[in-house]
Amino acid sequence: MSFQINPLSTALGAEVVGLDLAEPLDEETFARVHQAHLDHQVLVFRDQHLTPAQHIVFSRRFGDLSGHVYDQFLLPGYPEILKVSNKKTADGDFAGLASAGRRWHSDLSYAETPSLGSLLYALEIPPEGGDTLFNNMYRAYEALPAATKSKIDDLKAEFLIGSARKYYTENERPPLTEAQLASVPPVEHPVVRTHPETKRKALYVNPAHTVRILGLDEAEADALLTELTEHSVEPQFVYRHKWRLHDLVFWDNRCCMHIAEPPPPDSNRHMHRTTVVGDTPY
Ligand code: SIN
To answer: How far is the CA of 151 from the centre of ligand 1 (A)?
Structure first.
């Protein structure tokens, strides 16, 4: 199949134009898409018209799909799809997880086996705003001073969904039930991980789900986490995605963080997300 891959920024990200993901991809096309994803970390597939089943079929080419701890927001009949939406239902409730991604994070980094990547499909977008920003955690790591690299290379951190409410303000996310919280106990991952496919090193800690750094006291760990976050979201490492209707954006959670800006009041932003299961970070 013939299609174009156009870089979107000097930091990361490329758009894929001329590919219809509703159709099955032949092996050669899939291999090109897979390589582009490894090269650019974020792929934006323009003008897609996908049913939930087609979204799932394409996502599954990259691995098994996970559900989500916020299981009340899974699409009925499609437990592989999380609704990310600020639309209101007839009862006045949000139709999906309205506040998803309000802090820089990597999806499911609080899980024993975090996500390889996520595929977010825009079904309704606001006239402006509601952008998603992505950063390049390879470049952020590579640009660190040698002394910082050697300080953090062998460190491990503890991760817990929403940083155990340590940094989250009330109302920022719906409270988890006891059963939901019990399904995501704290886990440990390296501060710097090696991407299992490219073998490049990337920073892996994030302000949404990293609670502490093992072996450091709380003040030291917080200062280091703040320093690493501020460094890794400097403009030269960031791509800002301004959504177009029917974009499907596929990012690599192993080497990027992302953050979603809230849409303007009284505007609808309605998306479907699948989440591909990855490897245990090392
Ligand atoms: C997410 O964190 O997966 C949501 C991102 C977004 O809504 O742009």
So the answer is: 31
For 268-279, the pLDDT digits (tens) are 999 999 999 999
Domains along the sequence of the chain with CATH: 4-277 (3.60.130.10)
Instruction: Say if ligand 1 is within 6 A of residue 118 CB.
Output: yes
Name the residue with the closest Cα to ligand 1, atom 1: 101
Mean pLDDT over all residues of the chain?
95
Nearest to 75 by CA among 64, 67, 86, 87: 67
Q: Residue type at 258?
A: H
Residue 27: strand, helix, or coil: helix
The atom number, within ligand 1, closest to the CA of 258 reads: 2
Give the three-state DSSP class for 1: coil
Distance 58 CA to ligand 1 centre (A): 19
241 in Cβ contact with 131 (< 8 Å): yes
CA-nearest residue, atom 6 of ligand 1: 260
Q: What's the rounded Cα separation, in Å, for the pair 195 and 202? A: 7
* pTM > 0.90: yes or no: yes
Q: Which helix H or strand E contains 67, and what residues bound it?
A: none
- The whole-angstrom separation of Cα 162 and Cα 208 is 5
